[in-house]
């Protein structure tokens, strides 16, 4: 009953592997280069690359289920070749390797970004079309195309289900993720300014729980949105300030003004060698649909996302306990929502 996890070193992968191990499941992690987030865990390692079909076939040998998380995550508007190679062709290879090895079930991790957000007045559910048009950011299109690869595999006899999380936040964020970095900057008081807008945020542990439930309960070919709570960036900063006792950023800019500043931000990022948090793609996401409907996952899987404040408290504590942030005066990491 071995469960293979691609992208095990990522944020969701690190939490998924821990949950599978805690439940007594034998696991095998596909490792490409880095394995910091899963180092020391009671798991098997298989070295490979989603771009190398032969390495995937070897890694999936004897697997009961494959959780496919390996992906290139990007908030850039100009890196389609890498996204296509990893997210689209890589998923095609994963599907083929599952078929060749007779894997019982594939659980594919897509993204809310793969789905069209408009019209904003209507809640997004699993029936929304995929964002395949070139007017959408490259990352969104790559995840949409990856879903199509999984659907082709299902047509060829593969037992697969798709889960689509919103913006993930939570513990075991080793990299850290883009949003994890933003949280750290807010806690350090090093984020110079906020922007209006927000997103639907979901706890990584709830995503993992929903995916494991989908593996066990979902009919072949089903898709589930794993969403949480829409919260504005300003409210997140205020929440962090309340939890840590620090002051939130002083300035808040409207999204239109932030968009005007993107070229300057890109120049500064190249100068200081730091990845920009505010890009045309990330700012676009902050004005996306506020209403993401997870009723299907709740009905079929028993999915229930936890309160957002609990997620922020636990994430900041994890960052602190793992050396990602300095001790903050007046911190109250023991509180709960």
Question: Overview of this structure, please?
Answer:
By secondary structure, this protein is α/β, with parallel strands linked by helices. It has a domain at 2-171 and 200-229 and 292-301: NAD(P)-binding Rossmann-like Domain (Rossmann fold, 3-Layer(aba) Sandwich). It contains eleven helices and twelve strands. Strand 5, helix 4 and strand 6 (160-165) form a beta-alpha-beta unit. Mean pLDDT is 89; it is low at 327-337.
Topology:
Blueprint: E1 2-6, H1 11-22, E2 27-31, E3 44-47, H2 53-59, E4 63-68, H3 80-101, E5 105-109, H4 138-155, E6 160-165, E7 167-169, H5 178-188, E8 193-195, E9 198-203, H6 204-217, E10 223-226, E11 229-232, H7 233-244, E12 251-253, H8 255-272, H9 280-285, H10 295-301, H11 308-321
Parallel strand pairs: 1-2, 1-4, 2-3, 4-5, 5-6, 6-10, 7-9, 8-12
Antiparallel strand pairs: 9-11
What key phrases describe this protein's structure?
globular, 337 residues, 16% strand, alpha/beta, 12 strands, single chain, Rossmann fold, disordered C terminus, 3-stranded mixed beta sheet, 7-stranded parallel beta sheet
């Amino acid at each position: 009953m071995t469960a293979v996890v691609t992208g095990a070193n990522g944020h969701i992968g690190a939490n998924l592997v821990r949950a599978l191990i805690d439940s007594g499941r034998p696991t095998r992690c596909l490792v490409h280069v880095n394995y910091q987030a899963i180092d020391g865990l009671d798991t098997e390692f298989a070295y490979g690359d989603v771009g190398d079909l032969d390495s995937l076939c070897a890694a999936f040998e004897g697997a009961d289920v494959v959780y496919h998380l390996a992906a290139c995550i990007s908030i850039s508007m100009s890196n389609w070749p890498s996204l296509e190679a990893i997210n689209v062709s890589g998923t095609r290879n994963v599907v083929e390797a599952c078929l060749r090895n007779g894997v019982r079930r594939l659980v594919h991790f897509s993204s809310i970004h793969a789905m069209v957000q408009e019209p904003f007045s209507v809640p997004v559910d699993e029936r929304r079309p995929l964002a395949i048009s070139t007017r959408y950011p490259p990352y969104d299109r790559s995840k949409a195309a990856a879903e199509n690869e999984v659907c082709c595999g299902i047509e060829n006899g593969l037992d697969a289900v798709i889960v689509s999380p919103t913006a993930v936040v939570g513990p075991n964020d080793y990299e850290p993720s883009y949003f994890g970095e933003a949280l750290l900057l807010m806690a350090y008081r090093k984020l110079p300014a906020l922007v209006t807008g927000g997103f639907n945020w979901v706890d990584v542990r709830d995503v993992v729980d929903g995916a494991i439930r989908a593996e066990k309960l979902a009919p072949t070919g089903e898709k589930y949105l794993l969403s949480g709570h829409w919260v504005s960036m300003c409210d997140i900063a205020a929440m962090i300030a309340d939890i840590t006792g620090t002051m939130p950023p002083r300035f808040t800019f409207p999204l239109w003004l932030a968009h005007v500043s993107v070229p300057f931000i890109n120049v500064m990022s190249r100068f200081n060698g730091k990845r920009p948090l505010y890009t045309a793609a990330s700012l676009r996401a902050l004005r996306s649909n506020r209403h993401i409907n997870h009723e299907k996952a709740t009905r079929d899987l028993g999915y229930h996302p936890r309160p957002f404040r609990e997620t922020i408290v636990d994430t900041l504590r994890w960052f602190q306990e793992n050396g990602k942030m300095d001790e903050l005066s007046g911190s109250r990491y023991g509180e709960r929502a």
